[in-house]
Write the structure tokens for this entry.
Amino acid sequence: MSEQRPDNSILVKRLLLTVAGMFAFGFALVPLYDVFCEVTGFNGRTSNEAAVYQQIEVDESRTVTVQFLTRNAKGIPWKFEPSIKQVKIHPGEVKVVNFLAGNPTSSNMIAQAIPSVAPAEASLYLNKVECFCFNQQPLAAGAETEMPMQFYLDPDIPDHITTFTLSYTLYDMTANTSAEAIAQLLKTE
């Protein structure tokens, strides 16, 4: 007497669809997280687009201290530092801070600075009009440069934010860029 085995093909199809759905969801998480961070300012991310400054009233009754930190990611030997460690600014006032970069190597290189803000809530009120972080920065072997960052704070910044830190991490993008593109970027500098 032989027992009939149940047909498992429906179960196998459901399991394969579940695995495919989980895989697709895993890929969707990164862009969804990026959108979430951009909208909410979560994780201290700042916008990668230039803000347009329109004449607004400067709140001279308040002063916010903005501290600047820089660090190099693993594998990039550049000198990278702010020209000043902190600045005091009134909400609505425009400030320019320069960052100094130097490529001590014997090779042309390209770097990209990624900003973050702590506390993260302050990133919602930081408006960068001009920033070296918007684009990759080419630097010839042995060269040094000043990179400006022009910004203002939204006058609606909450009163409890009296100090925040704007931090940049510099990454080496040279391996992701062709030699021809590096040469072209250095020509347009």
Summary: The radius of gyration is 24 Å. The mean pLDDT is 85. DSSP finds two helices and nine strands in the chain.
